[in-house]
Amino acid sequence: MTETLEDPLRPYEEAVALPGAFQAGLWFIGRIRTPWLRREDCPKRGDPLHGPDCLIEIGELWTPGLHGIDAHQNLQILYWMHLSRRDAVRQNPHNIAGSTGTFALRSPLRPNPIASSLVRLIAVEAGCLRVRGLDCVDATPLIDVKPEFGAFWCDTPR
Amino acid sequence: MTETLEDPLRPYEEAVALPGAFQAGLWFIGRIRTPWLRREDCPKRGDPLHGPDCLIEIGELWTPGLHGIDAHQNLQILYWMHLSRRDAVRQNPHNIAGSTGTFALRSPLRPNPIASSLVRLIAVEAGCLRVRGLDCVDATPLIDVKPEFGAFWCDTPR
């Protein structure tokens, strides 16, 4: 797996000195299994209609929380982008002159590197959800699963 | 503000013994100001079209991250539901016979109580975002702001 925490900043990018203490803590409630073993292999954006099946493994403690999830076709997945540096406030993702604020980007580099993906639920298996629409690296830590009511998918070429 | 961490479980609800150590930490990057001072006053769901203006105050360290955000009309806001107990895996939100798994609900009670809201950006002010569509209690801690590309709003009665 690619370790990027030490990646140097690009031209025009700006980082801050991070605060010391955290204000809240997260438990990883599971792990996401995908076909992409390195960050550079991941697609730019997940495809809930035509993307490959991925497996969301739920930790044993939390599996009672899956009861009734099969009633939902669309799920929102929150996960922790564990390979991302957290101190970049201005970024230059396209490597051109100038930079953009982190909060105006969906870049994985952010103070709290939490990603949100909308996926389609394909099947509920033993302690696992089979879904389509993810784009993260294999073994990414899972933070939350919620039903998604507002999503819609268009089955048209991109 | 209502403190609910000690709220008793309802009939049919189930809690687990929480793990000890956290696996990741969060910084609160700001604070959300809303008209609702108690949880019981909050609307069930935010309304990005007709809801009241709310203010997202960004901590001074992070304000360079706002550069360019005015290019986006729709934003995704992640915040920390600091009043929610974290150990409920089966819940009975409607107080009827039976329960539903936490991951099949958007209830604030979840292992990692992170909420995700889609809002409309009304204005960028000094270190603040004026938005519509939130439904959280005043002074809720902010975790992240991202541009939202998939959202659409229907201006029809609910």
TrEMBL record, chains A, B:
Gene3D superfamilies reported for this sequence: YaeB-like
GO annotation terms (biological process): methylation
InterPro entries per record: TrmO-like_N, YaeB-like, YaeB-like_sf, YaeB_N_sf
Domain (TsaA-like) ranges: 26-157
GO molecular function, one term: methyltransferase activity
Keyword annotations from UniProtKB, A to Z: Methyltransferase, S-adenosyl-L-methionine, Transferase
CDD domains associated with the record: UPF0066
Family the entry assigns: Belongs to the tRNA methyltransferase O family.
Protein name as it appears in the record: SAM-dependent methyltransferase
Protein species of origin: Pseudogemmobacter faecipullorum
